[in-house]
Design goal:
Elements lengths: L2 E4 L6 H8 L8 E4 L2 H9 L6 E4 L8 E10 L6 E5 L10 E5 L4 H13 L5 E5 L14 E5 H10 L8 E4 H8 L6 E7 L9 H17 L1 H12 L3 H9 L1 E2 L4 H16 L13
Helix pairs in contact: 1-6, 3-5, 7-8
Length: about 270
């Protein structure tokens, strides 16, 4: 049986919602977890297909064509909170959520390439980290529904007075490129597994169901997430779930910059299933 990873964030519902609501035929098993957890399972071939951090293609995974979780300009759910204005930061420590992979590297690229800052980066668990760790940090990166909650409530974590949408910074500094945070990926050992093409077809049908039934999925998400229906629909309007030439151009630039600053040892091949 094919296993499908599901991130329990609002940004996965447009592609997975029809499957979750059993409105689209799906012959497989769903495994739910945060991005870093599913990235690990994908690497171990313990899930066959999953939305996974874009940088995970460094491990040789195949990509499902024309599906992604990308920004258009701002994204609202990849938020950096800082104690000083970002252009004034040149040293210090940034805390990076353990839920993140691509976003953590994006933060590093933004500071190194665009702001010429010399910072250290430390991983923290957003469910367990005590506030005392915040005292020594100049910034903190949250992603997903945690970040979205801060954005919608117009609040910030303790002692962090400024907030920045990383996708918006990327969009500005690259003269209008979107940013792709996640791709639906399949490890080498799973690409020929029986039933994988049917699951991919279910994903496409589920996304089509979303485009025709956005209100229904927003109501479903409202009950689960605690966000209001209108907030959810507005959030989804900032996301792009395609993966086309502009997305590939942007992701290629991102990997070029990661290589330039020795954050990765080699650039990945973009391989479609």
């Amino acid at each position: 049986m094919v296993t499908l990873g599901h991130i329990d964030y609002l940004n996965c519902i447009p592609v997975h919602g029809g499957i979750l609501l059993k409105k689209v035929p799906f012959k497989g098993k769903i495994i739910t977890g945060p991005p870093a957890y599913l990235n690990n399972l994908l690497s171990q071939c313990k899930v066959d297909i999953s939305p996974s951090s874009s940088v995970e293609i460094l491990k040789g995974h195949y990509i499902v064509p024309n599906l992604s979780i990308s920004s258009k300009s701002d994204v609202q759910s990849i938020m950096l909170f800082t104690k000083n204005k970002i252009e004034e930061i040149d040293t210090g420590t940034i805390l990076i959520t353990s839920h993140s992979a691509t976003s953590s590297l994006l933060a590093k690229v933004i500071f190194i390439e665009f702001f010429k800052a010399n910072l250290s980066f430390e991983i923290f668990n957003p469910e367990k980290t005590v506030n005392t760790r915040f005292n020594n940090a100049i910034g903190i990166l949250h992603i997903g529904d945690i970040a979205l909650k801060y954005f919608l409530e117009n609040t910030t974590p303790q002692d962090f007075y400024f907030k920045y949408d990383l996708a918006s910074i990327w969009h500005e500094k690259t003269k209008g490129l979107p940013f792709t945070f996640a791709l639906w990926q399949i490890p080498e050992k799973s690409k020929n597994k029986k039933g994988i093409s049917e699951v991919i077809d279910s994903l496409y049908k589920s996304y089509q169901f979303f485009k025709e039934n956005e209100d229904l999925l927003a109501e479903f998400s409202e009950r689960k997430s605690g966000f209001k229906k209108e907030q959810i629909i507005n959030y989804w309007s900032h996301l792009d779930f395609k993966f086309e030439s502009r997305h590939i151009e942007s992701l290629t630039l991102f990997f070029d910059l990661l290589k330039k600053h020795n954050l990765i040892s080699s650039k990945p091949e973009i391989k479609f299933i």
